[in-house]
Design a protein that fits this description.
Elements: H1 9-39, H2 45-72, H3 81-87, H4 99-126, H5 130-152
Bound molecules: fe (ii) ion.
Fe (ii) ion binds at residues 37, 53.
């Protein structure tokens, strides 16, 4: 069924694509943060175990919100490990890392999501998709905050 909420067809097409990318990157960061919550070892174990928990819980809520925005724009949410891996720009981590390596990697991932989200926000603005502009504004605030917190441990 045609979506008649006032966003052009081109806008809907572009926004669905950009949000699918953000969804995949957010999901990949969620998995990695959960991995580090489980596998972190070292003198800062407890504080990092807790900090990573706070962050993966937030990201779990975010993927739901982003996916539902894709649905509201009429898109189908490709939600499988295969689909996420194909789209995501966040590198998988399979090695066991030190505390600082984990922090540096997550910092880089959140900074990279900020860049992707900012471009998505500009696109949403261009097509007057104010609901996505709002969502992206909140996502940027969170990723910038997480980046600051991770950076402060280093
Ligand atoms: Fe846990």
């Amino acid at each position: 069924m045609k979506i008649a909420t006032g966003i052009s067809e081109e806008g809907i097409r572009e926004l669905k694509k950009a949000l699918a990318q953000l969804l995949a990157d957010t999901y990949a960061t969620y998995v990695k943060t959960h991995n580090y919550h489980w596998n972190v070892t070292g003198p800062r174990f407890f504080s990092l175990h807790k900090a990573f928990e706070e962050q993966y819980e937030e990201l779990a809520g975010a993927v739901d919100e982003i996916a539902e925005r894709v649905r509201a724009l009429g898109g189908f949410v490709e939600a499988s490990f295969g689909a996420f891996k194909k789209l995501s720009t966040i590198e998988d981590e399979t090695k066991v890392l030190s505390e600082d390596e984990m922090l540096k990697q997550l910092l880089q991932d959140h900074e990279s999501i900020c860049q992707i989200a900012r471009a998505t926000g500009d696109l949403a603005d261009k097509f007057s998709d104010h609901a996505t502009v709002d969502l992206i504004g909140r996502r940027l605030g969170i990723h910038e905050k997480f980046a600051w917190m991770l950076r402060s441990h280093l």
